[in-house]
Amino acid sequence: MPHEIRYHSFEEFEKAYEAFLNQLTFQELRWLNQMTSERIKLIHQVNTAGTLSKLRIGDKVKWNGADGIERQGVIIRINSKTASVRTKDDSGWWRVSPHLLTRIA
Question: Residue 1: its pLDDT value, please?
Fold first, then answer.
């Protein structure tokens, strides 16, 4: 059974983790990096799936584009990682991350 370690502050955790990392070989660090990356991807996939499951085709949504412009539209398709949204002014459609979408009335 793994031993559970508790830290009183994030700074205490950082120091202990840095000391641990300094003991690892290059190969061990690469393995740890791969495992960490896979875990982050898994968490992101779960969060995205959870957010997508709350959206429905026909939902009216809004989001801010990378250009800072707020857009509004209707979801026309739910993809594996994004939602396809037709803009309100029928100027086209966008694939948007579900984390960026806000449902509107």
Answer: 52
Do the bridges between strand 70-78 and strand 60-64 make them parallel or antiparallel, or are there none, so unpaired?
antiparallel
> 42: helix, coil or strand?
helix
Q: How many domains does the chain fold into?
A: 2
Q: Answer yes or no: is 5 within a domain.
A: no
Domain extent for 25: 10-53
The tokens of 27 are what? Answer: 């190969």
For residue 3 the two structure tokens come to 């031993």
* Tokens 């509004």, residue located: 72
Can you tell me which residue has the tokens 């994030």? 10
| Residues 46, 99: Cα–Cα separation, whole Å | 12
Q: How far apart are CA 105 and CA 25, in angstroms?
A: 55
For residue range 51-70, list pLDDT tens digits in order.
888 899 999 999 998 888 89
> What pLDDT is stored for residue 72 in this prediction?
93
